[in-house]
Amino acid sequence: MSSSSEFRVPGSEFGKTGESINIPGKPRGFTLLEVLIAVAIMAGIVTVIYMSFFTASRNIEQAETRRDATDLARTLLTKLSNEIANAYYSGSMTETFFYGKKSSAEPAAPRFDTIAFTTLANNVQDEAELREVGYSFEEASEKNTRMLIRKEKRDLSPDTPPLEGGEDSTLTDRIKSLRLRYFNGLMWTDDWDNRSQRSLLPPKAVEITLVLDEGSLYSIQVEIGR
Question: Which residues, in sequence order, are CB contacts of 84 under 8 Å at separation 6+?
Answer without folding.
Answer: 115, 117, 119, 206, 208, 222, 224
